Amino acid sequence: MKIIVITGSPHRNGTTFLLTDEWIKGAESQGHEVIRFDAGLHPVHPCTGCDHCRSHEGKCVFDDLMTQILPALLSTDLVLLSTPLYYFGFSAQIKAVLDRFYAVNEEVIAKPLKAMLLAAGGDSDDWAMGALEHHYETVCRYLHWQDTGRLLALGLNTREDAEASSYPRQARLLGASIH
Ligand SMILES: Cc1cc2nc3c(=O)[nH]c(=O)nc-3n(C[C@H](O)[C@H](O)[C@H](O)COP(=O)(O)O)c2cc1C
Question: What rounded mean pLDDT belongs to the chain?
């Protein structure tokens, strides 16, 4: 299976990357082909709603990482959204990617995709990921994506927290569960 991973953390050595790396190892152990885009390291310009795309066959005025993400998304089988929890939702880096789907909404909707969500947050409250999950489910519903799994890692403020937890193992198992 072809897989595209989109990460939204600015921290190369942070919790999200640690869990994403484990998830990818799990997926690759099952023979899946993974392409990764780190939107937190190579920022995607936020959509400005100029609607240039509406009269230019989906072409955006911004020439950035999205020019690679969109073709990869449209030729993949599964997408992983991997985000740190920022103010109880996706990080702005991931949100910018989602907003930029606007330019090619119809094409994205027409492509049947499986999806997974991986998130890491500092809080330990069981409600901390509620808004993120709701947003993710709504995006899946709108884009006709089939949710096939999620790992919501609570209580992770630092990479050390993550390393001391069972989440890396859970992330690897989730990646290896793809079929
Ligand atoms: C701008 C910002 C907003 C945050 N908002 C939340 C939040 O709403 N809930 C939470 O549990 N943690 C929050 N955190 C903590 C991060 O989610 C947590 O430290 C996470 O592990 C960071 O992932 P990273 O190391 O991959 O960047 C926030 C951190 C930042 C920098």
Answer: 97
For residues 98-123, average pLDDT:
97
Any idea which residue has 């330990």 for tokens? 124
Q: How far is CA 172 from the centre of its chain?
A: 16
Which residue segment(s) compose the domain that 39 sits in?
A: 2-176
Q: Is the Cβ–Cβ distance between 97 and 91 less than 8 Å?
A: no
For the chain, the domain total comes to 1
Look at residue 43 in the predicted model and tell me its pLDDT.
86
Q: What is the CATH number of the domain that holds 82?
A: 3.40.50.360
Return the pLDDT at 73: 97
Atom 19, ligand 1: residue with shortest CA distance: 157
Q: Which atom in ligand 1 lies closest to the alpha carbon of residue 123?
A: 11
What's the 10 CA to ligand 1 centre distance in angstroms? Answer: 11
